[in-house]
Amino acid sequence: MERFAFIIHPIDVRRDVGRKYPIARYLPEKMVEWLVMKLFKPRVISHITGVKSLTGAEAEGWLVGCPLSPRQILELDEEFVFDTIAECGRVAAAQGAKIVGLGAFTSVRGDKGLTIQKKLEGVINVTSGNCYTTYTAIEGLFKAAEMMNIDVARACAAVVGATGSIGQVCAKIVAPKVAQVSLIGRDEQRLARLADALRNGSRTNVRATTDINTLRDADLVVTVSSAVDALIRPEHLKSGAVVCDVARPRDVSKQVAQARDDVLVIEGGVVEVPGEVDFGFDFGFPPKTAYACMAETMMMALEGTYEPYSLGRDLDVEKTLRIGEIAKKHGFKLAGFRSFERAVTPEEVERVRERVRRS
Ligand SMILES: NC(=O)c1ccc[n+]([C@@H]2O[C@H](COP(=O)([O-])OP(=O)(O)OC[C@H]3O[C@@H](n4cnc5c(N)ncnc54)[C@H](OP(=O)(O)O)[C@@H]3O)[C@@H](O)[C@H]2O)c1
């Protein structure tokens, strides 16, 4: 039996903590964040059983809770944040796990797991899971494009958060497949450097911008920023656009669900896990589905290599494509589409297409 662990933390602190302690919903957000940080230590949240690969390999794992919110992970003293995450790794190792995945913002701060891995050298291996997250985001984007009858080769794609770890690889993989790619971020110099790298020897028209309003031109959008608040509002989107939102917390505002019935927004990075898996924890997903970054951690366990597959800011395109093969070998696959916490049915996609035809 192979053993892995995965670190989770509250995303919307009042909502997440409020499930168990309803009073949290009525307290100021910063107070709840502070209380959680002070009262809870990194600890095992659940035991994951029943992960079984098509190869026959089996794995069990543990969810380890990190008591920090996205805002705290981004804003508190870096050493304190890294030490808290490393402590989660030690909790995982004490259960017998040989690899730990960094969930949500625990992989966003700093150097995407490199320092955490250094702190845990000889204790446990670490992966951010970003390669498989990127792979499934692109897979989902193109599948949704096909369902919406978008001609990818003529399409304009946009990557929001393009200079980020996941954003850069998304841009590199998507750019050669489309007519135009728009790189959207907040650092002009980094955007310009990425745009130059993409233009090199390519026929794709590459645009780099800090203006989110330019999203209006995009048929295909992958959004992967680490913004704490939603960036994409109803007025930003083109009619008929497909948006794959990989960010946690989400980049696409809930208002989009209410105001734009002519766009298809899907959650990126959600996959079906092989076997009769029981997470012992409710992510708000259908049974047997998990985040792609968690799935990558499981795969490294099922491979028996416990390889720290995705570490550091600069992800490798080859490795990102190769993880798709590893996933296939073990039986991981893209889950059915979800949008704003609900399953997307074929009828719903048809309704979106119909509204686009009529508009
Ligand atoms: N679904 C999954 O399984 C899964 C797995 C892993 C990660 N994620 C999510 O993916 C997202 C990105 O992760 P990452 O590791 O690629 O993070 P990252 O390397 O920090 O990249 C994030 C990018 O977003 C940009 N950004 C941040 N705030 C912004 C704002 N207000 N406006 C515009 N751009 C902004 C950053 O710009 P600068 O370059 O200027 O800082 C950076 O380029 C996170 O939300 C994370 O939780 C999801």
Could you please describe the fold and organization of this structure?
About 35% of the residues lie in helices and about 20% in strands. With about 350 residues, the protein is an alpha/beta fold. It folds into two domains: about 1-130 and about 270-335, no CATH class; about 130-270 and about 335-359, Rossmann fold (3-Layer(aba) Sandwich), CATH 3.40.50. The strands form four sheets. Strands 5-4-1-3-2-13 form a six-stranded mixed β-sheet. Strands 8-7-6-9-10-11 form a six-stranded parallel β-sheet, with helices on one face. It is globular, with a radius of gyration of 20 Å. Bound molecules: NADP nicotinamide-adenine-dinucleotide phosphate. NADP nicotinamide-adenine-dinucleotide phosphate (NAP) binds near residues 130, 248 and 268.
Which class do the helix and strand fractions yield?
alpha/beta
Count every helix, treating DSSP H or I runs of 4 or more residues as helices.
12
Low-confidence stretches: none
Could you tell me which ligands this complex binds, including any ions or cofactors? NADP nicotinamide-adenine-dinucleotide phosphate
Ends distance? 55 Å
Number of domains: 2
Reading the helices and strands in chain order gives EHHEEHHEHEHEHEHEEEHEEEEHHEEEH
Mean pLDDT, all residues: 93
